[in-house]
Amino acid sequence: VKRHFRHLGKDIQNEDFTVVGIGDMGGDVFGNGMLLSEHILLKAAFNHRHIFIDPNPSAAKSFEERKRLFQSSGGWEKYSRAQISQGGGVYERSAKSIEITPEVKAWLGIEADSLTPNELIRELLKADVELIYNGGIGTYIKATSESHADVRDKANDEVRVNGGEMRAKVLGEGGNLGATQLGRIEYWQNGGRCCTDAIDNSAGVDCSDHEVNIKILLGEAVRAERLTLEERDELLRDMTGEVAQLVLQDNYLQTQALSVAQLNPAGYLKTAAALIRYLEENAGLDRAVEFLPDEAEINRRAEAGKGLSNPEVAVLLSYSKMHCQDNLLGSDLPDDPNFLPALIRYFPAPLQQQYGTEMQQHYLRREIIANQLANRVINRMGMHFIQRCSEENQASVADVVRAYWVADILLDGEERFRAVQALDNRLPAEAQMRLCADIAELIGHVAGQLLRSKRPFDNIGSLISHYRAPTTEFMQQLPERIQAEEHPSIAERETWLGSYNVLSQQDVAMLARLPFAANVLAVVDLAAKIGKPIATVAKAYFMLSEKLNMSWIYRAIAKLPSDNQWQSQAGLAMYEDATNIHLAFTRDFLQAGSNSRAAAEIAAARSQIADMQHYEPADLSMLSALVRNLSKIVAAD
User: Fold this and answer.
1) How many Å is the Cα radius of gyration of the chain?
2) Three-class SS string for 360-413?
3) Mean pLDDT of all residues in 347-365
């Protein structure tokens, strides 16, 4: 819910927001949820017995009253009438009719002097509020295309509304099955923000998993008499807060992945369509069962410039994670000691320090590693990452994850992601998501290069050791090697990032230049091959990039159609050819210095590239001809 509001430009920990709720303060889900911000203006709520209405609540007073009810497990009938604003009250759902006060009329925009309880609940579900928080039982939202019989919750037929009728900005699903999937999709398509009940409720499952796995771990220590049962219970109590943080971080990242996918829904549609087909073939997805669009509907949305709704993307997220986890479990990757950090970080710090040996002998060690890696890869890189890398490079899922792991470590990916996350409510949410997408794109580029040039991955530990220092040196030199005045795209990004006044100049400089680091491993390899310092090679590489305008070639290749696997592979091959030519020019320049042959090569290549720019946009055949001409100009290896 906090993430939805960040995308609406609101920090609900520091700004008041209006809510209609389903449930009561004695209920665990509703009661806990309605105490997670002191800025909740709960204007109405209902459970199976009562309807509570407070048209103009005080955030501070109502918070204290909700807290009192939660602690005493009281229902709405126990709410102090003195704390309810003018025109509000608590009403029995068994009443024949309820008087509608002027204050409630003004809020709901209705003229009726009285309504039945069911009619009033329908009006509340359609109310113009910022959040509808469902912490109760029952299905209250369906799609216009569905009948009440389709929903199979007869008890709530009289109060149920269509997703398109709702005016709330955000729907938070603390309760399961509060909306049908088609109802959620309709709500999103009409401007509401939501995920699914599975996404909104996943922390509960995550918490249970942690509890079970921690008890398995400590059970071994108890049996070995390293720990008494009383000491175990005390340790469990002490770790409650940290387990909560681990669980919440998992769920924070999961909704972040959805938000990144929604940066450009129409632009993401082709990628999503390819992913649906892939998951149908490889992960048991049935798009009809999961209410995903068929090919005809995808084509209609493409023509209308529309993409998938968040609830639809959430389904792809779930299947992508399951597919990745299943494939990792079927491989030898979970047995590789290089991935032990994924196991260790799953547990709270006190266990990491004291029970490292037991962790490696954990009964579900392989399952935890596979689960944690699947979550991390999909959350960070997007649900299409495994499919794209696997198909483009004819690679197994396990090798794609190995390549990601190496690339992420070499590029300090996790640290970069976390630095962006630290800007919540300081940097606009969309800007944060764009930066996350940029970081993921760089890691994806390097992972792809590893898949194409470094397999088989016999020892990823040695691969990391070999590239770690020179990659870090290369990244640190980016700001001084690439001048903003020579690259309009960098100047534009620096202006954009600097306008928010929340990033240091150093961070702005680095984040603006991330796309220019895509070929870092190739530059490191060239430096090793010709025996020159990475600083020297990087300087020449970027100098020639500017002189030849290689950035234009890379951008032109990136704009090539990629509607299917074969177009993607054609573009990828073209990118590799262009990179190799760029490196060859760099090699020749460094080995020949400023002699006439090197200068002639550069002049000839520059002329060819400049000539091609007159014919923008360049298609595949034009770029193929240009790359072929450039390969003839550069000296033979």
Assistant:
1) 29
2) HCCCCHHHHHHHHHHHHHHHHHCCCHHHHHHHHHCCCHHHHHHHHHHHHHHCCH
3) 91
Strands (E), 247-296: none
Whole-angstrom distance, CA of residue 124 vs CA of residue 147: 21
SS (H, E, C) 283-298: CCCCCCCCCCCCHHHH
Q: Element (H or E) spanning 162, and its range?
A: strand 161-162
CB of 101 closer than 8 Å to CB of 66:
no
Is the pTM above the cut of 0.85? Answer: yes
> Residue 469: enclosing H or E segment and its boundaries?
helix 460-481
Confidence class for position 637, pLDDT limits 50, 70, 90: very low
95-109, 334-348, 483-497: segment of lowest average pLDDT: 483-497
Cβ contacts of 273 within 8 Å, gap of 6 or more:
295, 298
d(CA 252, CA 256): 6
Q: 32-53 burial string, b = 16+ CB within 10 Å, else e?
A: ebbeebeebbbbbbbbeebbbb
Residue type, 274: A
How far apart CA 433 and CA 392 sit, in angstroms, is: 25
Q: Which residue has the tokens 């055949």?
A: 621
Mean pLDDT (whole number) for 424-451: 96
Q: How far apart are CA 52 and CA 4, in angstroms?
A: 25
Q: What is the pLDDT of residues 13-44, one digit of tens each?
A: 999 999 999 999 998 899 999 999 999 999 99
